[in-house]
Amino acid sequence: MNYKYVIIGSGPTGLGAAYRLKELGITDFIVLEKEDHIGGLATSFVDEQGFTWDVGGHVQFSHYKYFDELMLKALGADGWLTHQRESWVWIENRFVPYPFQNNIKYLSQETMWKCLDGLIDLYKKPFQGKPANFREWILATQGKGLGEVFMFPYNFKVWAYPTEDMNAVWVGERVSVVDLHRITKNILFNNDDYSWGPNATFQFPKHGGTGGIWEAVGDLVGRENIILNANVESVDAASKQITLADGRTIGYETLLNTMPLDLFTQKVKGLDSAITEKAQGLKHSSTNVIGIGLKGKPKAELATKCWMYFPESNSPYYRITVFSNYSPNNVPNIEEQWSLMVEVSESPKKPVDQETLMAEVIRALKEDQLIESEEDIISQFHIRFEYGYPTPSVERDGILKTVLPALEPLDIYSRGRFGAWKYEVSNQDHSLMQGVEWANRVAMNVPELSLFFPDTANAMWGK
After folding, report:
1. Distance separating alpha carbons of residues 264 and 257, to the nearest angstrom
2. Which of 285, 445, 451, 455 is most buried as measured by Cβ atoms within 10 A of its Cβ?
3. Long-range Cβ pairs for the range 20-24 (8 Å, 24+)
4. On the CB side of 384, how many CA atoms lie within 13 Å of its CA?
5. Which residues pair with 6 in a beta bridge?
6. Is the per-residue pLDDT at 177 higher than 70?
């Protein structure tokens, strides 16, 4: 089998590329998916008890009109629920509205003063120069107190790497910058302040979880254009032949890869070994998703919450979503059941004991006052993804500037959350648009925006 365009992976990037090619009237393409289902990290699972789970806390908000229109086409106007974001931080046995930095008035006086003291010191003696890493960025913009109380412990729990191992390029709109004037006013006038960020309102599918979206996009692409259980064993760059694990071969003229870049470079015959070795320096963390299905109703304090952050060390998780609040169809019977979706990161710097993780989570859920009794639990779900977050490490950009351009003379492109490894443009909307923009480039010679100009792409929010 030979095709003009071959796409490896059926996550948002691969499906976005395929959809755009088809939209342009190009039919000479195929999508290869190693799993028996499409969606990548945006898929959803239904457990044996009938509870639906995503691969982490996905929500739908967008920087692109094209993405919005495709989402509407995929599920229709009636296929979505719209929510007002309610995100909170659980700390000192209390909920603090997010962003934490703007709401330290909720903390004990000692902790509040520690945060303010660090900010005052920062205003008296501003950080000089450019932060060399994420830890320095936190100290330069948040102060030592906020760093120690929230930013350092929380970000280690999310990323599974110390903040000094990460660059500060990715931050952009994802971390609220501190304003001492605003914080002081919030304290004195007892103001709540939680409107910051691009996802103050978000959408979620009525049915099927996040995976339902991409199943619908797969239908728009055409199932005949997607081969499942197609695990790529090797890519011969000279002959432009892909060999699958089952022995099948597929020829291409132009190849789009969306599998993790470090793994992909190991499979490309004809790629300079120094490039392959360079790509192995990319860091990633793994994601453990634990679903807890419960009988009854959530307590009043959780009734409207969307997700919650957990910086403290008593719990293994960094974020929990009240997943039954996203859609009543995420549980078998919303009148009698509800659900919590828990995320735990993992890396060589932050190992996780898989044997005891579920018990640790349940213990912490009780300790953090999210559930009252283990007897209420009617479903326990656990899935682990080796590649969860592409870590924006200090060496990442130097690696990408070497590896990605080295593929292009071979008519190979690598895009997407792990294909291009740019966390700052790896939401579902970004990922899909990386595929769309690649298709525009190879078919019409239109320059790509999102991957190469993340700040510009993210500034488009609300436009």
Report:
1. 8
2. 451
3. 20/435, 20/436, 20/439, 20/440, 21/439, 21/443, 22/220, 22/221, 22/222, 22/225, 24/439, 24/443, 24/444
4. 13
5. 30, 255
6. no
